[in-house]
From TrEMBL:
It comes from Planococcus halocryophilus. Gene3D superfamilies: TusA-like domain (3.30.110.40). The lineage of its organism: Bacteria, Bacillati, Bacillota, Bacilli, Bacillales. Residues 7-31 form the UPF0033 domain. Pfam families: TusA (PF01206). Belongs to the sulfur carrier protein TusA family. This is UPF0033 domain-containing protein.
Amino acid sequence: MNADKVLDAKGLACPMPIVKTRKQMKEMESGQVLEILATDKGAKADLVAWAKSGGHEMLDSREDSDVFTFWIKKG
């Protein structure tokens, strides 16, 4: 999946992946896609809930080894 920006949040514990995602999203325009890489197991539930509450769309998520990848479209 093509992303407009990539955020590397690997090695960060909750709540830092959300904090960094929110900061990056503020710099993006509506309709752009952010790819997030994280290793925190709680990131999946956190990012899904955050995207929904913020009016963004979780396009896809994948797990490869211990790295979770998320694609969120800015609302």
